[in-house]
């Protein structure tokens, strides 16, 4: 049996369910509901003003308060919004009604919907989606259904695309703490397209392939922004006896399958923990203030928290939990880590649990004995300790108890953030949103989809098969597929349309040389397309050699200099014609030899970046 078939059978056996939400920022001139620039400000730009607000949860259209918004609201954080000239207006900060829907953004969204075989809605109905994590000053995001009932073919599977939305991008976090978050509003309101698949993607590998296909469809429009943060992949994962968990913020497509595999592993381990806790008849006790036990402690961590204003220490007995708090559920992640992540939502830096080495905290045996007596700890029991300011500790203990109690039920429904890109693990963000956070947008009229709009969408829809066929003619199948799967396709088309260099050379520069230079720390993405075209034209005219191109790219990535300056200041001009003959003659005299191999090696060792190998061979032969 094939390996892929084995994998498919395994995931079917464990009741694996997986769906994707792809969010892509569109490259439009203006934002979705105002005339502000849809291009984010340059890094380091100072804001012209700031606005600070608090937010609270309200009932949605169905009359209920969503659990995720209620959770965020209970944290009582302050949100500051940094405002930028020509990038933020009164619409963004909810002090002015939204303007008309951006027709340019709608046209792109309709074309994408057609490219994914969707049925287009007859009328766009703007809705509000409640958001109280502070990312939107209005506490809601405007969103609208554009297409439904689409599909995509990937890994031999027919994957349904039930919905495509056009919506507003959120603000970007500038800095964050448990009490305050500062947001940049330059990206707030930029048109964003959300593409949702159904939950029946059969394997993590297939999920990766679906994401690649959708990403390619978006890039083929030539109307999407590129760079870190402009596209985000959220993944919904569950297994039998587990729960739906949303993994947010996976930036790299190549890591999607690894994050999914680790979430499956995490849920399997949490189910094992649940079964063991049920077998032990485990339970959570009542939290107890134990500050007096540690009043003379030698533990620097506990001592520091006691000395702060209103500082207290609380402890919680966990009956039957011994050994399970330290049980690894993911690489470098344990059940104790998950409980700690919940507690951190209140503002504490973490907690201490009994499966850890108490010597590392410098907690004495006598203190542990008094703690055990105070909590009623018996053989097989465990405990957690939380220290800090009184009100914060009580809130943190509330969240910790919530997570500990859920350990006896299994896997909690959560929204989790992609955390470690090396280990491909995630951390808790908030409870999973429900269906109670949507309600109608009353400030915007519905938009009728006309026959002209539909025809334009059909004419401009992205077509993967057509694009692949066109690229194969000039690049060959392997290079064409590599380019299609990369994020460089739109840039390649722009540059190859302006530069006179060979298309294969351009593709290899963007795919291979850029990748290698980026790994070595060069910010090649900062080099403008105009400079790349100028560089390629210098190469095509013979001003520089093929070997010198990466060196010019390094120079351009290091500083904002002209291409000609980068070539001359780094002595990268090509040596050819009479100058090359003079160089060969001088080398022959210096070495007192006309041996071809000796001359070739000697000259290339000194002038590898300035001399073309075949041209040098001809010069040596003429000598």
Description:
With 623 residues, the protein is an alpha+beta fold. The protein folds into 4 domains: 3-42 and 52-276, no CATH class; 283-407, GAD-like domain (Gyrase A, domain 2, 2-Layer Sandwich); 463-569, no CATH class; 577-622, no CATH class. The protein has 20 helices and 24 strands. The strands form 5 sheets. Strands 1, 4, 6, 7, 8, 11, 12, 13, 21, 22 and 23 form an 11-stranded mixed beta sheet that branches. The longest helix is centred in the middle third of the chain and has 24 residues, at 256-279.
Please render the helix and strand layout as text.
Layout: H1 3-13, E1 17-25, E2 49-53, H2 67-74, E3 78-83, H3 103-115, E4 119-120, E5 123-124, E6 127-130, E7 140-154, E8 157-168, E9 172-176, E10 180-184, E11 191-196, H4 204-219, E12 231-238, E13 245-250, H5 256-279, E14 283-284, E15 288-289, H6 300-307, E16 311-319, E17 328-330, E18 333-334, H7 335-344, E19 352-353, H8 365-375, E20 382-389, H9 390-407, E21 414-420, E22 425-431, E23 438-440, E24 447-448, H10 451-460, H11 464-475, H12 477-485, H13 489-498, H14 503-519, H15 529-541, H16 549-558, H17 563-569, H18 577-591, H19 596-607, H20 613-622
Parallel strand pairs: 3-10, 13-21
Antiparallel strand pairs: 1-11, 1-12, 2-3, 4-7, 5-24, 6-7, 6-23, 7-8, 8-11, 9-10, 12-13, 14-16, 15-16, 16-20, 17-18, 19-20, 21-22
Helix pairs in contact: 3-10, 4-5, 7-9, 11-12, 13-15, 15-16, 19-20
Average pLDDT level:
92
Low-confidence segments, given as residue ranges, are: none
> Helicity, in percent?
25-40%
User: What number of domains?
Assistant: 4
Based on CA atoms alone, the radius of gyration comes out at 30 Å
Return the structural class.
Answer: alpha+beta
Largest sheet: 11 strands, mixed
Strands, count: 24
Strand percentage lies at: 15-25%
What would the principal axes of the Cα set say about the shape? globular
Oligomer: single chain
């Amino acid at each position: 049996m094939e390996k892929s078939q084995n994998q498919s059978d395994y995931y079917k056996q464990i009741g694996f369910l997986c769906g994707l939400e792809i969010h892509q920022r569109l490259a439009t001139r203006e934002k979705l509901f105002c005339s502000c620039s849809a291009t984010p400000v340059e890094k380091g730009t100072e804001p012209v003003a700031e606005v600070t607000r608090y937010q609270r949860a309200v009932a949605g259209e169905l009359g209920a308060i969503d659990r995720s918004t209620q959770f965020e609201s209970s944290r009582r954080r302050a949100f500051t919004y940094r405002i930028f000239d020509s990038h933020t207006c009164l619409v963004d900060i909810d002090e002015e009604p939204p303007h008309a829907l951006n027709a340019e953004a709608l046209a792109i969204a309709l074309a994408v919907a057609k490219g994914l075989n969707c049925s287009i809605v007859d009328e766009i109905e703007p809705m509000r989606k409640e958001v109280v994590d502070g990312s939107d000053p209005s506490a809601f995001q405007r969103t609208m259904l554009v297409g439904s009932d689409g599909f995509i073919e990937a890994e031999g599977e027919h994957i349904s695309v039930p919905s495509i939305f056009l919506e507003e991008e959120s603000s970007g976090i500038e800095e964050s703490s448990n009490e305050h978050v500062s947001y940049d509003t330059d990206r707030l309101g930029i048109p964003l397209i959300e593409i949702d698949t159904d939950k029946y993607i059969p394997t993590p590998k297939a999920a990766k392939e679906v994401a690649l296909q959708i990403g390619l469809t978006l890039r083929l429009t030539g109307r999407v922004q590129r760079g870190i943060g402009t596209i985000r992949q959220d993944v919904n994962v569950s297994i039998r006896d587990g729960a739906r968990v949303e993994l947010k913020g996976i930036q790299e497509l190549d890591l999607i399958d690894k994050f999914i595999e680790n979430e499956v592993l995490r849920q399997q381990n949490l189910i094992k923990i649940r079964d063991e806790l049920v077998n032990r008849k485990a339970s959570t006790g009542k939290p107890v203030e134990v500050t007096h036990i540690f009043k003379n402690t030698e533990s620097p961590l506990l001592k520091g928290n006691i000395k702060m204003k209103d500082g207290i220490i609380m402890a919680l007995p966990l009956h039957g939990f011994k050994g399970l708090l330290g049980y690894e559920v993911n690489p470098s992640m344990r059940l104790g880590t998950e409980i700690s992540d919940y507690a951190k939502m209140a503002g504490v830096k973490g907690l201490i649990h009994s499966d850890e080495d108490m010597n590392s905290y410098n907690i004495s045996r006598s203190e542990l004995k008094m703690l055990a007596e105070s909590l009623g700890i018996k053989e097989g029991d465990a405990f957690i300790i939380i220290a800090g300011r009184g009100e914060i500790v009580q809130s943190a203990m509330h969240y910790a108890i919530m997570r500990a109690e859920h350990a006896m039920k299994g896997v909690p429904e959560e929204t989790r953030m992609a955390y470690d890109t090396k280990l491909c693990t995630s951390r808790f963000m908030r409870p999973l949103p429900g269906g109670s956070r949507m309600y109608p947008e009353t400030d915007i009229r519905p938009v009728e989809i006309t026959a002209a709009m539909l025809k334009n969408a059909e004419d401009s829809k992205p077509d993967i098969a057509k694009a692949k066929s066109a690229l194969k003619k000039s690049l060959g199948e392997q290079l064409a597929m590599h380019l299609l799967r990369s994020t460089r396709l739109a840039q390649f088309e722009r540059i190859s349309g302006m530069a006179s260099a060979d298309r294969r050379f351009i593709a290899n520069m963007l795919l291979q040389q850029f990748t290698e230079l980026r790994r070595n720390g060069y910010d090649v993405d900062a080099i403008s397309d105009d400079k790349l075209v100028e560089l390629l034209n210098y190469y095509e005219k013979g001003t520089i050699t093929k070997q010198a191109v990466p060196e010019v790219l390094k120079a351009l990535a290091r500083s904002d200099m002209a291409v000609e300056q980068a070539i001359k200041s780094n002595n990268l001009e090509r040596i050819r014609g009479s100058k090359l003959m003079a160089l060969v003659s001088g080398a022959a005299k210096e070495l007192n030899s006309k041996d071809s191999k000796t001359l070739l090696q000697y000259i290339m060792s000194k002038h590898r970046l300035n001399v073309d190998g075949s041209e040098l061979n001809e010069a040596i032969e003429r000598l």
